[in-house]
Amino acid sequence: MQGTEYYIKECLLKQFDISWQLLNYHLKDLSIEECLWQPTEKGIFLIKVDDNNYKGSFPVSESYNIGAPNIAWLTWHIDYWWSMVINHTFGNATLDADMIEWNPSIPDIQRKFYELKNNWVEIVSNLSMSDLQSTELAKFPLKDCPFSDIIAWLNLELMKNASEIGYARFLFGNRHKQIDY
Could you please report the per-residue DSSP string of 165-176? Predict the structure, then answer.
């Protein structure tokens, strides 16, 4: 059983590490201007609460016509779901979307992600095989599944959001270029 537990954890941690590397790459040299830039006229953006804080909200649908998210929303979204998984599984389960604020500071964003990463790697590294198989640990965003499914979901969600940040950065970097066909 030790071999299977080791293999499952190592596989999940390696998947996570690949997702983390992509996110870390796209956060390098990121600016607040890029974060707040809106790639489409309408889209999924943050709401300014005061000079230093923004809050996120969720779109009413996932149809393509709602517009693209900006990087600020994507980084808020990563903080939201990652913090929710940790809080609802290993904390007091009181965290909700309204409690997650986004501060327009690249060092703060990076620091938060490193805290989440280090906390997550420690948590996953210390799980037993029964923890990985436990459906009682699965509380957010999925229920009644093995906790290993939550870990796999988190890996995929991180990779997806990191890719979206990278794509938005490509768009930002070429926003003033005219396309000739």
Answer: HHHHHHHHHTTT
